[in-house]
Specification:
mainly alpha
Amino acid sequence: MGLYNLIFRRSPPIRDAAELADFIDEQSAFLVQKGIYEFSRARAGHYAKVLFTERTFLDAAEQSRWSAYPLGLAMVGEMVYGVLRPQEEHQRSTIAQALGSVVLAVFDRYAVPAALDEEAWRDARSTLAHHLTLMASRPRKRVMDIPEIFAERYFSLMPIHKKMRASDFPTMKNYLRVVLVNIHDDLTRRLDVDAMAGNLRGRG
């Protein structure tokens, strides 16, 4: 492949549930991990290189990213539903239920992380499942508003002492908004909405 094609090649289209699941998995992990590491690096300043070699911090960051991953799934899942949400009210529950199953199947790709205990992982799945069941009954949100109910929980997971991060919550919430909007733009470029809606209706 030539250098031009390597740099400017388009991301592959998303037409079926398996491709959508991969997109949700990758973007959910990216959304939460990028914020954790960039916030920690910014807070550490000149000591970032030292911080990122300390076992205590690395263990805390690992716990943070796995604790935050279900929040990423919830945000990205709701964003995907907003793109797919049909005009016909009677189809909304079918699409939401099928999409919810896809998101939970993504969660179930992973065994209980070493950084968390089984009860915490099970509770995270239950909370995610509950959020997904409510998607069809809620008004459609602007993408930038989706992180609103998740931002405080996400911010509380940062592996930095509370005294060093108290004033940074607005910045972190804006980070979630901007990155989720960018993920939405990528999805709308790649998603075959009609094919995906038909695929999900069939699964439903």
